[in-house]
Every structure is written in structure tokens, then in C-alpha cells.
UniProtKB/TrEMBL annotation, chain A:
<protein>
    <submittedName>
        <fullName>Tripartite tricarboxylate transporter TctB family protein</fullName>
    </submittedName>
</protein>
<keyword id="KW-1133">Transmembrane helix</keyword>
<keyword id="KW-0472">Membrane</keyword>
<feature type="domain" description="DUF1468">
    <location>
        <begin position="11"/>
        <end position="143"/>
    </location>
</feature>
<dbReference type="InterPro" id="IPR009936">
    <property type="entry name" value="DUF1468"/>
</dbReference>
<dbReference type="Pfam" id="PF07331">
    <property type="entry name" value="TctB"/>
</dbReference>
<keyword id="KW-0812">Transmembrane</keyword>
Automatic annotation (TrEMBL), chain B:
<dbReference type="InterPro" id="IPR006311">
    <property type="entry name" value="TAT_signal"/>
</dbReference>
<dbReference type="InterPro" id="IPR005064">
    <property type="entry name" value="BUG"/>
</dbReference>
<dbReference type="InterPro" id="IPR042100">
    <property type="entry name" value="Bug_dom1"/>
</dbReference>
<dbReference type="Pfam" id="PF03401">
    <property type="entry name" value="TctC"/>
</dbReference>
<keyword id="KW-0675">Receptor</keyword>
<comment type="similarity">
    <text>Belongs to the UPF0065 (bug) family.</text>
</comment>
<protein>
    <submittedName>
        <fullName>Tripartite-type tricarboxylate transporter receptor subunit TctC</fullName>
    </submittedName>
</protein>
UniProtKB/TrEMBL annotation, chain C:
<feature type="transmembrane region" description="Helical">
    <location>
        <begin position="45"/>
        <end position="69"/>
    </location>
</feature>
<feature type="transmembrane region" description="Helical">
    <location>
        <begin position="318"/>
        <end position="342"/>
    </location>
</feature>
<keyword id="KW-1133">Transmembrane helix</keyword>
<protein>
    <submittedName>
        <fullName>TctA family transporter</fullName>
    </submittedName>
</protein>
<feature type="transmembrane region" description="Helical">
    <location>
        <begin position="152"/>
        <end position="182"/>
    </location>
</feature>
<feature type="transmembrane region" description="Helical">
    <location>
        <begin position="194"/>
        <end position="216"/>
    </location>
</feature>
<feature type="transmembrane region" description="Helical">
    <location>
        <begin position="109"/>
        <end position="132"/>
    </location>
</feature>
Length: 152, 330, 501
């Protein structure tokens, strides 16, 4: 086994292959059809196969060709930023925009240890007010403001 | 709760530009009537700007004047109207949410398996809102001058005539399938995402035949780029007195006009259903609304709930037969 | 010179105080909507459509059109400042515009975007005035085969967008095409890779994908360690473009305008293709293509000009043929229909006040936009002074609310989360998301038209070369491919030779 020269490329190749195998499995039941009447499966299947080919080629490139160094990942930042979006998704429908927006700001602030709580709370309150004023009052979008009451 | 209702309604009326229009009406509180005391939502699976959307908006503009409450039309496209239907069912079943739908209401359950909702049981019909006559047309320079010539060619050359449809299981598609089924011919079906592209490709010579709602075809008729061979409607159209209906041409079972109707979740009181039906019927008689839609070939109906229920039962039979005989499947 | 007499008549309509006011409201609302990520002109116009019941048809159209091009305009602001592409046409602006902002040159980037748009807007208005009816025929000459070939050309061009490995760009393109397959198959109605989730029946939304890959990934990257925190705090150096900037942007904006005018007329994907095409073209003709992606001012001027020109010429097929070229034009058609006016060839003869009033208002609106936006540049750049550790939560909120309001869909917000992770992953592994996005948008169109073309031709692939326009497009695509692959191939060989020796 030759040493990997560019881990970035190898990882990209692996992910692309994983995604295309998954897509191939999902697209398998779809009919490929014929040339003058292509079925729904034709495009996804061919693409998945082509993509596996590209994935392999990218891995090969990573084995043979020097590239930029592999960078460290930061789990805390990844987790809290994504979690703040998840919080928004979980609350916007049922609990309304005030809860969702404030929660998103507070959760995302956890991604950075140095942020002072008072700053976070002020930004959260400010954003909640801004969102309600601009999106609900100004643009009239059907957004729930509080956890109670009707949207319209 | 009523306190919150009013407060929210008031906020809305003060705030949203959507109801700038309705703001004028909002001032006059609905006198005595228990319904509607706040804005009513009408959800449709038709995309903004299309024929179904415009018909809904024009109709409900008039309805909001009748009921003295804002009517908020919302587009939730996707899944052959499934997304819109689900959106309506997810709201409280209190008479403040309605669904505007077409033949998809009946066809979607026939074509899609494992639906999360039951269109027939979960909804009750309110009224037929509009109808749109169908047109069968070819390009102006086409070799076929009449419907008979077209059918004669199609009989001799199966699978040669290319026609476009948008929306599997929509009325244009069912009409086209019925022409093939009962006319004993076979066309080549080419699917499109939106109807205006079909009109474009017929004129551009990519397609031989178009089955479209009259409103979609009007620009091309005005530009004198297409020839009408037949219409799908109970009578000939006023604008085209020389064009025969499909029934006159010997295909009564293919002679259908497209339609759009109003539904509400099962369990909403008969009183509210009746009030909404009456409001749509009244709106259909307002020239401000009727003339606007008539200009593009859409006819406002506002039939009684009993008539609409019978109309749906009749259509159920038609689509079941066509879907079964023509072996339409997804 | 009849057209100019009519245009003059148009100005007398557009300059009436009421219409001027609606034009101003439209451009203001449009700018605001464009700046806010997520909610785009489409939802804004859908929301405002009912109001137009109460306006004169021409006022209604002037206001809605103002929102449309105002939003195109505002979209570039958030793309440059925050790396958030609010709509598909501003994806390209992110590439070099945001890099300029990172170097403290947000002011010049915004100013160049504004001036290029103005130039393109004015020029496109003249094009519509003089040539609307004849060039509308172009839309009729494009059938399935031509569209397929155009999409192929667009995808080949996407490789040029990336400045890393060609192979990885190809991988991203195919991934984009695969993602574009999700949802209901137009031809058969079958569901593909949708996991039975109704929210995916119409496919993955563009907004969560674009904002996740560009915006969210970049945020995580920026806060991950202390070094990156000063990223956005580089001193805002200058507000106004330098003489050098002007020298570089004028030719780019001119070429972009031409590309935009032509592609805007073609239904479907025209506006987005035009900004990509203009960028690619600039990169190809540039003497220093290596500057692109690192804050080249041409990389802002060309796509901004193209996208604004395309936005205006996309009215041509609607007003002359009654064919809406995209979802937004379908809404405009709706606005006309609501007033009982059938969009199509009779608009010019039966309702000249609408046709010419609208065109003249575009002229006025573009001027208004510059007047509104130039003073705002100072304000926007001030925004960048907010400490990043307080700024990024705000951007996240905008992403979430923007994505949510497009369809009121919680699923879309969850997709934002997923694609945010992918965005971070791609940054870490040096993959560029722009080709993926282009492929995602073009893929479904490409597939549909391929299948349609094969059905129309009874299964004969020769249709792509026997139809002249299609053949020319494919030849150009092949030429591009050779141009792109040759240097890469040469480099690989050099590397291989070096290793051998």
C-alpha cells in the first residue's frame, strides 16, 4: 500500500463513493426504460455509476499527488452551530419565532467559550424583536410569534 | 380564546400588507354571524401565477367582499396536491382552512400508493369554483386541418403523433388518454413541467398536438400561431363558434372541461360549508370577478354542495375507467 | 424610430407621481428582500400579488418588476458581505465579491456591483425597446434538443468555475446532478430517492442547499479557532472603487450585459446561467485567470451585469409570446391576468401603456436603485464592524428564518443543517460548492430535455447534431472541454514525468 499523499482527496473520494452507492440502492427499484422512452431510473443510475468512477479517480489522485495538508476538525463549533439550526427547526412551528430565534442565538453562542452570557442574551432579544418586526409585521409572512394564538 | 383571536386578527390587519386590501373590510365587523370572525386560509396545490392560482385569487377576492373577512390564499405545491392537502389537514378543523383542488383530488389516491392521508374520507366537498374548457390544437402550418384528418392519420400511424401534457392525471391528460382509448388511436405522450412550454413547442414544431386549457392557449391563438381542432366542453365556445366539441366529433366520453373546486376537512360544520358555498356562488355572479376570469376563458361556477358531490361521483367513475383501461400508472 | 416615440410615451407614464412612487416602493422592498437571505423575489411577489388588485395594472406591474430587479440587486449585497447567496443568480457573486470583502474591499465590491447593474439595466432596456418582437422568436427556436445542449454547455462551463482539481470539480458536478434527481420524476410521476417524505416530493430546495453549503459551512470555519476571528475585522480600506477597479470592470460589465441579454430571453434557468456564463467567460479571457476566486473585481462586475440584464430581457417572451420564462415571470403573468389582461402578442397593440410604461419604469427603477444603494454602502460596511462572535449568531438566524419562510417548511431548516455540515466538510477538504450548485439547478432541466428530445425524435440521438443551434452549442461545449482539460492534462503529465526522473 503506497502512502497517501493527499488525505483530503482520499476522503472526498470515499464520501462521494458512499453517497453514490446509497443513491444507487435508492434508485435501484426505478425503471431505467429504453432510449426513446427513458424511465425514471435511467438518469440517477447512470449518474451514480459515473460518480463511483470519479470517486475512485479522486482517491487515486490523492494517493499519487501531493496536496494541501489535512486540517483538524473542531467538534464543539460544529456541534453547537448545527444544534442551533436544529433548535430552530424543532421550535419554529410549535413555539413561535420569539422562542426559536432567541434559542438559536443562545445555542450558537455556546460554540465559542469566550462569549459573555449578557452579550448573548442582548443579541438574542434584539434579533427576536428584529425578526418579528421585519418578517411578521413588515413583510406579513405567516410566522407564529408566541407559542399561543393563531397564525392568521 | 376569543380575546386572543381578535387581538391576533387585529395585529394582522394592522400589520400585514397582504391584507392592506382587506383592511378596508376589516373595519366593518361581521354583523352577528359566528363565522368567519378572523381571516380564512385557502390553500392550493397550484403554483403562483398559474390558471388555478389566478382563479382562486380572483374568486376569493370577491368572496372576502361577500364574507367581510380577508381570505388568505396560500400556494403549497407538490406531490400532485398532496402537500397542500396535508397542510390543510394539519390546521385546526374549525372552518378557517379550505383546500382548492382539481381532478388531483380524485386521481392522486388512484395513482399514488401508501398515501399518508385519505382524500375521500378526510375531506368534504364544498362547491365547484370554476371550469376551464379544454382545447385540442395543432400548429397553424400543420398538415391536419380538421380533427377527423388528425385521427385518420393517427389510426394509420400509431405512436407517430406527439402530444404534450403537464401533470399526470390532470384533466388535459385524462382527455388525451380518453381520445386515444375511445378513438382507437395511439399518440406519443411527452411530459412537461408547465403548460405554457407545451404551447411553445407546438408552435415551434417540436410537438404535433396540444391538449391544453383554453387559458394557456389564448396567447398563441391571439398570435394566430395555432389552429383549434376541437374543444372539450358541453357546448361550443362563444369565442370559437366554428370549432366542434369532442362530443359532436363522436367522442362523448372524452368531452370534458377542466375544473377546480373547494374542499374542507371532514368534521367542519354543515353550516360553515353552506355559508362558504353561498359566498362562492355569490362571488361567481359579481361581474368584477366573472369578467376578469372570462377574459382568459375561465368560467366561474359556484355550484351547490349537492351538485358538486354528484359531479365528483361522476368524475370518479370517469377517471377510474380511463386509468384502468389506459393502464396509467406511476 | 417608432419605438422611441413609444418609449417616450412610456416615460410619460412611468414618471407620473403615483407610478414613480410604486417604482420606488418596489425597488425599496426588492432591495430589502434581496438583502435578507432566503426570502426571495418569488415569495415577495407572491405575497404582494393580492395588493395589486387595488392598483392600476401598469402600476402593479411597475411595482412587481421593481421588486424583481431590486431583489437581484440586494441579493448581491448579502452575497458580498456574508457569503450568503440569497438566490441562485448571486451564487457567483459570492466567489469574488466575498473575497473582496474579506480583504477589506467590501465598499468597492458593492459599488461595482451597483454600477455594473445600472449599466446592464439601461442597456437591456434599450435592447427591449428596439428588438423585443424580433428576438422573441429566439425563444421559439429553442426546443428540447437545444435546451439539452445548452445545459451541457453550462455544465462544462462549471468546471471552469473551480480553481482546484478538475477531477474534484467533476465529482461535485455529478453530485449536484444526483441531488437534483430527488423528487417527483416529471415524465412518469414516480418518486425518486424521496424517502416517502412529502416535503421532498418537489425535490430538495435550492435555498437550504445554497445557504448550507456557502453560509453555514463558512460560519463554522470562521469561528473554529482564534486566528479566524479577526477575519472580517480587517480594516475597511476604501469605500469607492479605484481607477484600476473601473478600468478592469467596464469591459467585464459590457461583456456580461451582452451575455445576460441573450440568455435572459431563453426560458428556464436563463438568469442563473447568464451569471455563471459571464463569470466563466471573464475568467477565460482574462490575462490573469489566477486572480479569480481571490477577489477579482471583474468577477463581480460581469455576473452582476449579466444577471441584471437577464432579469430584464426575461420579460420579452412573456410580453411578446405569453410564455413565462421562469416561475417569477409566471407570477407577473398572474398579475396581468388578475386584471383581465392576457399576456402575449396583443399586449403591445392593445395595452401599449403597460408595455412601454413598464419598460420606461425599468430605466427609472435602475436609476432609483443606484440612488438608494450607493449611500447604503457606507452603512453596510459598518455592519462588518460588529464583532464576529456576535455577528455569526445573527447570520445563523437569518439563514434559518430565510430558509423557513420560503415554504414554511421545517424540513428545509433541517436540510440546511445537513448541508451546513457538508459545506464545512467541503471547505476542509478543499472542494468547491459552486459547480455543485450549478449542476443542481441545471440537472433536472437537462434530464427533462434529454428525455423529451429522445421521445420527440423517436429515440434517434442524431437530433442533437442535425438541429443547427443544438449542434453549435455542443461544438462550443466540446471546445470548452478541450480548453479546460488540456492544461490539466499537461500538468499531470509534467508531474508524472518529474516523478519518473
Amino acid at each position: 500500500m503506497p502512502p497517501i499523499k493527499n488525505l483530503n482527496d482520499v476522503m472526498v473520494g470515499l464520501v462521494l463513493i458512499a453517497i453514490s452507492v446509497f443513491a444507487l440502492v435508492l434508485a435501484w427499484p426505478l425503471k431505467p426504460g429504453t432510449l426513446d422512452a427513458m424511465g425514471p431510473g435511467f438518469f440517477p443510475r447512470s449518474l451514480a455509476v459515473i460518480e463511483i468512477g470519479f470517486g475512485l479517480a479522486i482517491i487515486a489522485q490523492g494517493m499519487l499527488k501531493e496536496g494541501s495538508p489535512f486540517e483538524r476538525w473542531f467538534p464543539r463549533q460544529i456541534f453547537f452551530v448545527l444544534a442551533s439550526i436544529g433548535f430552530f427547526a424543532a421550535t419554529i412551528d410549535r413555539l413561535g419565532s420569539v422562542v426559536a430565534v432567541m434559542g438559536t442565538v443562545l445555542v450558537s453562542c455556546l460554540a465559542r467559550r469566550e462569549t459573555r452570557p449578557i452579550e448573548a442574551v442582548l443579541v438574542a432579544a434584539g434579533m427576536a424583536a428584529f425578526v418579528v418586526l421585519v418578517f411578521r409585521v413588515g413583510l406579513g409572512l405567516p410566522l407564529r410569534i408566541w407559542p399561543w394564538g393563531y397564525v392568521y | 380564546m376569543p380575546k386572543i383571536d381578535r387581538r391576533d386578527a387585529l395585529k394582522f390587519a394592522l400589520a400585514a400588507p397582504v391584507v392592506l386590501a382587506a383592511g378596508r373590510l376589516g373595519a366593518q365587523e361581521s354583523a352577528g354571524a359566528a363565522w368567519p370572525t378572523r381571516p380564512v386560509q385557502v390553500v392550493t396545490g397550484f403554483g403562483p401565477g398559474g390558471g388555478g392560482d389566478i382563479a382562486t385569487r380572483v374568486t376569493y377576492q370577491a368572496v372576502s367582499e361577500v364574507l367581510k373577512q380577508p381570505m388568505v390564499v396560500e400556494n403549497r405545491t407538490g406531490g400532485n396536491s398532496l402537500v397542500a392537502a396535508q397542510a390543510v389537514l394539519s390546521l385546526p378543523h374549525d372552518g378557517y382552512a379550505f383546500l382548492m383542488n382539481g381532478l388531483q383530488q380524485l386521481v392522486t389516491p388512484l395513482l399514488m400508493k401508501d398515501l399518508p392521508i385519505n382524500f375521500e374520507k378526510d375531506f368534504q366537498p364544498v362547491t365547484q369554483m370554476v371550469k376551464y374548457p379544454e382545447t385540442i390544437s395543432v400548429a397553424k402550418d400543420s398538415q391536419w386541418k380538421t380533427f377527423e384528418e388528425l385521427m385518420a392519420y393517427a389510426k394509420a400511424n400509431p405512436d407517430r403523433i406527439r402530444y404534450g401534457t403537464s401533470g399526470i392525471g390532470g384533466v388535459p391528460h385524462i382527455v388525451a388518454e380518453a381520445i386515444q382509448l375511445y378513438g382507437g388511436v395511439k399518440f406519443r405522450n411527452i411530459s412537461y413541467r408547465v403548460a405554457p412550454e407545451i404551447a411553445r413547442d407546438v408552435v415551434g414544431g417540436q410537438l404535433d398536438l396540444a391538449v391544453l386549457n383554453v387559458s394557456t392557449l389564448t396567447p398563441m391563438i391571439q398570435a394566430d400561431k395555432v389552429r383549434l381542432l376541437a374543444v372539450g366542453n358541453d357546448t361550443r365556445l362563444e369565442q370559437f363558434p366554428d370549432v366542434p366539441t369532442l362530443a359532436e366529433l363522436g367522442l362523448p366520453k372524452a368531452n370534458h372541461a377542466d375544473w377546480g373546486g373547494i374542499f374542507t376537512p371532514a368534521g367542519v360544520s354543515a353550516d360553515i360549508v353552506q355559508q362558504m358555498q353561498a359566498a362562492v356562488a355569490k362571488a361567481a355572479k359579481m361581474p368584477s370577478a366573472y369578467d376578469k376570469l372570462a377574459a382568459q376563458g375561465t368560467i366561474m361556477v359556484g355550484s351547490s354542495t349537492a351538485d358538486f358531490t354528484a359531479f365528483l361521483a361522476n368524475w370518479q367513475g370517469i377517471v377510474e375507467e380511463v386509468v384502468r383501461e389506459a393502464k396509467i400508472s406511476l | 424610430m417608432d419605438s422611441f416615440v413609444s418609449l417616450f410615451h412610456g416615460f410619460s407614464i412611468a414618471l407620473q407621481p403615483a407610478n414613480l412612487l410604486y417604482c420606488l416602493i418596489g425597488t425599496l422592498v426588492g432591495t430589502l428582500i434581496g438583502v435578507l437571505p432566503g426570502i426571495g423575489p418569488l415569495s415577495a411577489i407572491a405575497i404582494l400579488l393580492p395588493i395589486t388588485f387595488y392598483l392600476e395594472p401598469v402600476s402593479a406591474l411597475i411595482m412587481l418588476a421593481g421588486i424583481y430587479y431590486g431583489a437581484q440587486y440586494g441579493g448581491s449585497t448579502s452575497a458580498i458581505l456574508l457569503n450568503l447567496p440569497g438566490e441562485n443568480s448571486s451564487v457567483v457573486t459570492c466567489l469574488d465579491g466575498h473575497q473582496m470583502a474579506r480583504k477589506g474591499r467590501a465598499g468597492p465590491a458593492l459599488a461595482v456591483a451597483a454600477l455594473a447593474s445600472l449599466f446592464a439595466g439601461v442597456f437591456a432596456t434599450l435592447v427591449i425597446t428596439l428588438f423585443a418582437p424580433p428576438i422573441s422568436q429566439l425563444a421559439l427556436m429553442f426546443g428540447p434538443a437545444e435546451y439539452f445542449s445548452l445545459m451541457v454547455l453550462g455544465l462544462i462551463a462549471a468546471i471552469v468555475l473551480a480553481h482546484g482539481s478538475v477531477l474534484k470539480a467533476l465529482g461535485m458536478i455529478v453530485l449536484g446532478l444526483l441531488l437534483g434527481c430527488v423528487g417527483t420524476d416529471v415524465d412518469s410521476g414516480a418518486l425518486r430517492m424521496a424517502f416517502g417524505i412529502p416535503g421532498l416530493f418537489d425535490g430538495i430546495g435550492f435555498i437550504p442547499l445554497a445557504m448550507g453549503l456557502f453560509g453555514v459551512g463558512e460560519i463554522i470555519r470562521n469561528i473554529e479557532n482564534g486566528h479566524h476571528q479577526s477575519v472580517m475585522q480587517t480594516k475597511v480600506r476604501d469605500l469607492w472603487p479605484s481607477r484600476e477597479d473601473f478600468r478592469r470592470s467596464w469591459p467585464a460589465a459590457t461583456r456580461g450585459t451582452f451575455i445576460g441579454c441573450i440568455l435572459g430571453i431563453l426560458p428556464g434557468g436563463g438568469a442563473m446561467l447568464s451569471s455563471f456564463a459571464a463569470y466563466t467567460f471573464e475568467k477565460k479571457v482574462s490575462k490573469q485567470p489566477e486572480r479569480f476566486g481571490k477577489g477579482a473585481v471583474e468577477g463581480v462586475a460581469a455576473p452582476e451585469a449579466a444577471n441584471n440584464a437577464g432579469a430584464q430581457t426575461s420579460f420579452i417572451p412573456l410580453l411578446t409570446l405569453g410564455i413565462p420564462s421562469n416561475a417569477l415571470m409566471a407570477l407577473m403573468a398572474g398579475a396581468l391576468l388578475i386584471h383581465g389582461i392576457q399576456p402575449g402578442p396583443r399586449v403591445i397593440t392593445n395595452n401599449p401603456e403597460i408595455f412601454w410604461g413598464l419598460i420606461a419604469s425599468m430605466f427609472v427603477g435602475n436609476l432609483l436603485l443606484v440612488v438608494i444603494n450607493l449611500p447604503l454602502i457606507g452603512l453596510w460596511t459598518q455592519l462588518l464592524r460588529v464583532p464576529y462572535h456576535l455577528f455569526y449568531p445573527m447570520i445563523l438566524v437569518f439563514c434559518c428564518i430565510g430558509v423557513f419562510t420560503v415554504n414554511n417548511s421545517v424540513l428545509d431548516v433541517m436540510l440546511l443543517m445537513v448541508f451546513g455540515f457538508f459545506g464545512y466538510m467541503f471547505i476542509k477538504w478543499h472542494c468547491e460548492p459552486a459547480p455543485l450548485l450549478l449542476a443542481f439547478v441545471l440537472g433536472p432541466l437537462m434530464e427533462e430535455n434529454l428525455r423529451r428530445a429522445m421521445q420527440v425524435s423517436y429515440g434517434d440521438p442524431a437530433i442533437f447534431v442535425t438541429r443547427p443551434i443544438s449542434a453549435v452549442l455542443l461544438a462550443v461545449a466540446a471546445g470548452c472541454l478541450v480548453l479546460v482539460l488540456l492544461p490539466a492534462f499537461r500538468r499531470t503529465r509534467e508531474v508524472a514525468f518529474q516523478e519518473e526522473s
